[in-house]
Automatic annotation (TrEMBL):
This is Phosphatidic acid phosphatase type 2/haloperoxidase domain-containing protein. The keyword Transmembrane applies. SMART domains: acidPPc (SM00014). Keywords: Membrane, Transmembrane, Transmembrane helix. The chain crosses the membrane at residues 66-85, 97-117, 152-174, 186-205. One of its GO terms (molecular function) is sphingosine-1-phosphate phosphatase activity. The lineage of its organism: Eukaryota, Metazoa, Spiralia, Lophotrochozoa, Mollusca. It holds the Pfam family PAP2. CDD domains: PAP2_containing_2_like.
Length: 228
């Protein structure tokens, strides 16, 4: 391979050509992304049929808000704590503790992602949600969607054995995700990504699952006096 003689200048036209190609590629990617976001905004507005009292299906808004509350983090965390206090079998305690930790893990993941991306909610959204935090002003990803998919998997794989209950859980999970768009809370992209993030978070948490032996070793005194 022939080396370039010392002092020989690099061909400025080649460098300029490479920079131009990079800029064109970057510009094309940004243009494509902007077009995608415009479509996301457009179809989100089209499907927000319960967003306000003037919407075409405003009469379904109370039902959508009921779905919203059914997947809110506060009731779920309280429910996990109550489940733990009511458990008497070691396996049930293991499930209750891991349910609580999984919920906390979900809150941390969603909170960090909201603070990182800081995408605003749809313009037609009415901020009348129950018990919101400061990061809830951001839209990406949908926390309800992540929790619905994560808890749907958790319940079907660790709590419910009855096929009917599992089917109802899947229907509930998908209904919650759909309601986020119909209610005007999130863009479609936020919900789809939120659902996928919830699935990934569940399998990621599975790698850190706290075993029954570990839990009972930490809760031995409490377990002996309260649960038995």
């Amino acid at each position: 391979m022939r080396k370039r003689p010392i002092g020989q200048k690099v061909d400025d036209s080649n460098v300029a050509g490479e920079e131009t190609a990079t800029q064109v590629c970057k510009s094309a990617c940004l243009s494509l992304w902007d077009s995608f976001l415009m479509l996301d905004h457009h179809y989100t507005a089209q499907f927000a049929i319960c967003a306000t009292k003037e919407s075409s299906l405003a009469n379904l808004r109370p039902f959508m808000k009921l779905l919203e509350i059914s997947c809110h983090g506060v009731p779920w965390i309280l429910g996990a704590c109550i489940l733990f206090l009511c458990c008497h079998e070691p396996h049930d305690i293991e499930v209750a503790v891991n349910l609580l930790f999984a919920l906390i893990f979900d809150l941390i993941v969603v909170g960090l992602m909201k603070m990182t991306f800081q995408r605003g909610r749809p313009s037609h959204n009415i901020m009348d949600m129950f018990a919101t935090a400061s990061v809830d002003k951001f839209s990406f990803p949908s926390g309800h969607a992540t929790r619905a998919s994560m808890m749907g998997l958790f319940l079907c794989l660790h709590l419910f054995k009855n096929h009917l209950l599992m089917l109802l859980t899947i229907i509930w999970s998908l209904s919650v995700c759909t309601s986020r768009v119909l209610l005007g809370r999130h863009h479609i992209f936020d919900v789809v990504c939120g659902f996928c993030i919830g699935v990934c978070s569940y399998y990621l948490y599975q790698q850190a699952w706290v075993s029954q032996e570990t839990i009972l070793s930490y809760l031995d005194t409490y377990f002996d006096h309260v649960h038995l």
